[in-house]
Amino acid sequence: MHYSYLIIGGGMTAAAAVQGIREIDTNNPIGLIGAEAQPPYKRPLLSTALWKGEPFAQVWIDIELQDVELFLGRQAQVLDAAGKQVTDDQGTVYTFDKLLLATGGTPRRFPWGSDQIIYYRTLADYRWLRSLTEEGQRFAVIGGGFTGSEIAAALAMNNNYVVMLFPETKISERICGPDLSQFLNNYYGQHQVELLAGERAIGVERRGAQVVLTTQQGMALLVDGVIAGIEIEPNTELAQAAGLKVVRGVLLWNVWGQVDAARRLIVAPGPFQPGDLIRRLPERFAPERSAADVGSAMSEYDAIIEESFPASDPPPGPLALL
User: Fold this and answer.
1) Is 51 exposed, middle or buried (0-12, 13-18, 19+ CB in 10 A)?
2) pTM of the entire structure?
């Protein structure tokens, strides 16, 4: 199967890129390979609106209206950049003129209790947690960052008791600063969330219908479910195996789903030619337009590749256009 545009990844980035392509090119074929069985959906709603009673139908993105062929529940396993082809885990071979890697990331995992912990990220994770809340009302959330705090709030607003543990002294301390973090500590503590600041989880085991989460300081928390809202690792294996230069992710892409370093997108006349630069994309993209602008650039130029960025930048999920 041959596509003018082939996208690997089935998330919001991929869907927005399809939109951007179609704004420039309404005719040439687009193929999309997604690891999840579902078509692209609005991931932020999984930890916000759906827990506030919003209709589940709002989660879906109408990507089919963009005339794109979807290959869902499949993993792209081999990228032959020189031959311009991709092979998936079912042996299907796709050839392309231009390729977008929008493979996102996978939550980091603990070396224990893998089948007892919900590493909250996907629609399947949301459904799993929802089913647990129908049976129990006590939950432990590991992580005090953006994802962990949203999940804890979602559970608490649905009348669940939540214990939240994180190694920092305050919620989202690295992001919000001391004053706002202290406000969040106070606010969460007043709304059915027990905070175990400066604490780490070290193990979990099943006990009947519940699980016991043990902590570094010797606590044993008996709960109905354990949710990890922690950092992700960029899915860069495919790009690395294909010979792409990967530095903490193919392209800096932050937790908000925006290109926070759009100025580092470089348009080049062909794949893997970072030294032959012909144009820079705009310094800033509007948040709702960032991935769509990447798709538009994809339809207009031969390649977009990354420029080096400081090691101090936050870890991204990868996006690379070849």
Assistant:
1) buried
2) 0.79
